[in-house]
Amino acid sequence: MASSLARKFLAPSGQSLRIFNRDPAKLQPLLSDESLRCVAITSGLAEMTDTCDVIFMMLSHDGAVLEVVGQLLDALRPSPGAGGSREEPASGPRPPRVIVDCSTVSPDTTKEMASAAEAAGAQYVACPVLGR
């Protein structure tokens, strides 16, 4: 389903698209698809937060959403400085990131992720996709 989403993003824009999958084997069909030649695979979720202002995700269940959003938000937080205090990067504070969750998950998970994102200075948008 995420490959269909990738095609929709690429069709009108011709822009590049960065992708990540928790299971790298699932990326192989995307790499062989000529219509997705503008796709770049990221090495991990931290790279997504460093290079993308808006991150779309489509995951299979609540546990996966909790795991991935947790890792994204951890990557967005400034790293600890001397004495354990949090420091902003030398380039200054990062702009807020937007996480658009296209997963179909429980309302409780959505509320929890929205609160966690807000606490980390990010925005969480629930945009579940139903059907095929």
Automatic annotation (TrEMBL):
Residues 77-99 are annotated as: Disordered. GO terms for molecular function: NADP binding. Gene3D superfamilies: NAD(P)-binding Rossmann-like Domain. It holds the Pfam family NAD_binding_2. SUPFAM superfamilies: NAD(P)-binding Rossmann-fold domains (SSF51735). Residues 1-131 form the 6-phosphogluconate dehydrogenase NADP-binding domain. PANTHER family: 6-PHOSPHOGLUCONATE DEHYDROGENASE NADP-BINDING DOMAIN-CONTAINING PROTEIN-RELATED (PTHR43580:SF8), OXIDOREDUCTASE GLYR1-RELATED (PTHR43580). This is 6-phosphogluconate dehydrogenase NADP-binding domain-containing protein. It comes from Gonium pectorale.
